[in-house]
Automatic annotation (TrEMBL):
Residues 44-108 form the DUF4368 domain. This is DUF4368 domain-containing protein. It holds the Pfam family DUF4368. It comes from the Bacteria. The lineage of its organism: Bacteria, Bacillati, Bacillota, Erysipelotrichia, Erysipelotrichales.
Amino acid sequence: MIQKIYEDNATGKISDERFSTMSMAYEEEQKSLKEEISDMQAYLETETDKSESLQRFIDKIKQITQPTKLTAELVHEFIEKIVIHEPGHLDGKRYQLMDIYYNGVGVIRGLTPEEMEEAFQKHLAKRKINKVKTT
């Protein structure tokens, strides 16, 4: 645009005064646009950093809420202590109780050996029923 008004001024289509006014206006606009580009690039970099930080946070939360393996970080974050009791025998089967003390929650009672066996038998029965339904 600046080149066009220069040519128009050179050929006499616009006056020197008009050329000067238009040229100054275009120069200010160009300067303003360059500053906006700089500001937008800084904003984009900040938003990209925020996005990457958010993604790292989401990944960390997924590891905690959907753990695929027990890590030291997960244990230290959520478990205060684990108490392993003496092994015992029931109906010829060995069992061993443990208490897990969670941070901020305390111990959540685990199942007794009898309750574990009962829950396991219910699970097997439920699987059998579901298998019959699908065939």
